[in-house]
Amino acid sequence: MKRIVENKKLIIIILAIIGVAAGIGYQQYASRYRSTENAYLNADVVPVAAQVSGQVIAVYVKDNQHVHKGDPLFDIDPAPFRIALERAQANLAQAMQSAREDTAQVAAMRAHVDQTAVDLGNAKANYARARDLVSRHFLSRQNADNAQTQVDSLEAALVQARANLAKAMAAPHQPQHRADVLRAEAEIAQAKLNLAYTHITATEDGQISNLSLTTGTMVAAGAPQFALIVDNSYHIDANFKETELPGIHPGERADVEIDMYPGHKFEGTVESLSGGTGTAFSLLPPQNATGNWVKIAQRVPVRIKLAPITGHYPLRIGATCTVTVHLK
């Protein structure tokens, strides 16, 4: 019996030593590492949308296909945009024609001013001669008055002609400075741009995803049609408890285990820490000022940048991960 009691005491002592050792080990581990299973694989995703509205006439890709930057994705019917371009070009031609007509009109007005000035000079000379002849009683006073009236009329006509010329000269003489020409040129530039927008190409290397677009579909400008997952942009969004954040800093090394590849470790680096908790940016953030408040440790997203992956390990956004950060 005594031996049994001694054995129990020995077992208790051993268990106590193991517990203390485990506690010390866990404390040392916690001081060197931070780990969480609340982590998900993500990547830069480009929502592919047309910049003009129209009917799709060709789709060049399939769902889950890999594409390179500049590869064609789909086409919108360019016919309406070609017509718009031709209309803008016609407006420019009309504006240029108006510019040439205005230039010719200025020249005609200048010639009219010169002719009126010559006529006025002749009328003044005729008036002077008429006055001389009236003073010598070779002409009646009526002839002198008629000559005076002619001079007054031509002087008024000259003033009006010069005013018209000044008004015409105030407008820009060069076509490239005229408002109607600049407007028509801008319409042509916009029409060419819209026509180019009917051919949609990949902006980055990546994988097509969530594609359901088919020929004949009417698409609206700016409405996303499918997604392009950008190559080499994968990262981990690891959600650590706020109490686990002390010691985690950008630049620290991280080990990543992705559940779809059990037993394989990926290398990563802490890229940044979010400026708020996950709930702070949710659609309906919690109202902690209410009376039914319960204190719950919040989680803060930490972005882990994955190192270049060697070997054939295709990744899928949304996959669950386990992240372990090595504290400095």
Structure notes:
This protein is of the alpha+beta class and 328 residues long. It has helices at 2-32, 79-135, 141-170, 179-196, and strands spanning 33-42, 45-49, 54-59, 66-67, 72-76, 199-201, 206-209, 218-219, 224-230, 235-241, 253-258, 265-273, 299-306, 320-326. It folds into three domains: 34-44 and 233-326, Efflux pump adaptor protein, beta barrel domain (Elongation Factor Tu (Ef-tu), domain 3); 46-78 and 194-230, OB fold (Dihydrolipoamide Acetyltransferase, E2P), CATH 2.40.50; 81-193, Four Helix Bundle (Hemerythrin (Met), subunit A) (Up-down Bundle). The protein has four helices and 14 strands. A six-stranded antiparallel barrel has the order 1-10-13-12-11-14. The chain is elongated and about 170 Å long. 15% of the residues are buried.
How many domains comprise the coordinates? 3
Q: Residue share in helices?
A: 40-55%
Enter the CATH topology name of the largest domain: Four Helix Bundle (Hemerythrin (Met), subunit A)
Strands, count: 14
Mean pLDDT: 82
- Cα distance spanning the termini: 54 Å
Shape annotation: elongated
Oligomeric description of these chains: single chain
Structural class: alpha+beta
